[in-house]
Amino acid sequence: MATTTKKDPVFVVVQLSGGNDFMNTVIPYTNPLYYDNRTFLNIPEEDVLPLDSTLGWHPEMGPFKELYDRGMVAIVQGIGYPDSNRSHFRGMDIWHTCTPDEVSTIGWLGNTIEQLDPTGENPLTGINFGVGLPKAMTKAGVPVTSVSNLDNYGLMSGITAEDQKDEALQIFKNMYGQAVGTGPVMDYLSRTGNDVLTGADIIKVAPERYESTVEYADSPIGKSLRDVARVHTADLGTRIFYTQQGGYDTHANQLPTQPGLFKDLARAVNDFFADLEEHDADDNVIMLIFSEFGRRIADNGSGTDHGSGGGAFLVGKPVDGGLYCEYPSLERDRWAKGEDLEHTIDYRGIYGTVLEQWLGLEAAPIVQGTFEQINPFKTN
């Protein structure tokens, strides 16, 4: 495999599955309309971790606030798209393919990986940590490695590697066959150059090469981000990493559920960047944290229902931290669909920002159009 002295830009995606409630993540804690609409679920002003005089972090986001205070977090307020789809499956599908008006079998990161490695030379150019394969990374003929357990993966015999590949592809087939038809899915499965055996052979050096003083918390997202760090610091040529944290569908029991999710997420992301810093491997890595939609403005007495106008985060040493775009208005005449936060920036513009300003690729063919971008990176 070719080696290079120049560090290529690396992109890590963390998907918060289920629809994260942005209003209780970055909280408009001095706005009376927040307390009027969140009579049950509001975070008391004295518990909020202030970001400025109008917005503050959820109290469990302390380790994330540390990164923000160091200038490493760009908060993308009001991210979404017109006429947001409230179905988990279709909503996530839209984020994964950049096609709100049609169902596509091609993921935006599948297109990206193909651009980064046109000949498919390195099966580790794109790696998913988790079970199955996110649709964002799929494109016929584009090799992607999906790893559910890094410690076992590099030790796999040919048989278990095939089993894991078959399991991942079966999950993919079950997830998408119903929506797009078995024809396109089977076509994708038969043409995908997903050489799991080669990937397993190369990736097994990652745990062997890795040493760190950082002790990640014992959580699924902590484990996944530690795996990302182990592979990244092994210099195996991976450019796109993907993983997810589930549990954000908080129709009910949001008060006991969301704090634990935030605690695990904030700690894991903080540990991850501390780990990269310790390895002097943090100057070419950025992370996007996103969710398929936000929740509604008013709570339902136990949780929040599917909405729109969420928030996303770009994190990393190269990021010029701060607030980007406009926090959606809480004024009733500005509500989307009469009950949602409006979107103030199109998610495809944020993808375009990463593609053009970070990865050096032309965005329009990948995000299916031209959308407003932001400037979240340090000029140097």
Can you put this structure into words, describing what you see?
The structure is a single chain. The protein has 380 residues and is of the alpha/beta class. It has a single domain (10-367), classed as Alkaline Phosphatase, subunit A (3-Layer(aba) Sandwich). The chain has 13 helices and 12 strands. Strands 1, 5, 6, 7, 8, 9, 10, 11 and 12 form a 9-stranded mixed sheet that branches. The chain has a 3-stranded antiparallel sheet with strand order 2-4-3, with no helix packed on it. The longest helix is centred in the last third of the chain and has 25 residues, at 254-278. The model is unreliable at 191-195 (pLDDT under 50).
Q: Which spans have pLDDT < 50 for at least 5 consecutive residues?
A: 191-195
The helix/strand class is: alpha/beta
What is the approximate shape?
Answer: globular
Gap between N and C termini: 29 Å
Q: Would you count the extended β strands for me?
A: 12
How many domains is the backbone divided into? 1
Contiguous helical run count:
13
CATH topology: Alkaline Phosphatase, subunit A
What is the CATH C-level name?
Alpha Beta
User: SSE order, as H and E?
Assistant: EEHEEHEHHEEHHHHHHEHEEEEHH
**Proportion of strand residues:** 5-15%
Helix content: 25-40%
CATH architecture, by name, is 3-Layer(aba) Sandwich
Q: What profile does the largest beta sheet have? A: 9 strands, mixed
Rg (C-alpha, Å): 20 Å
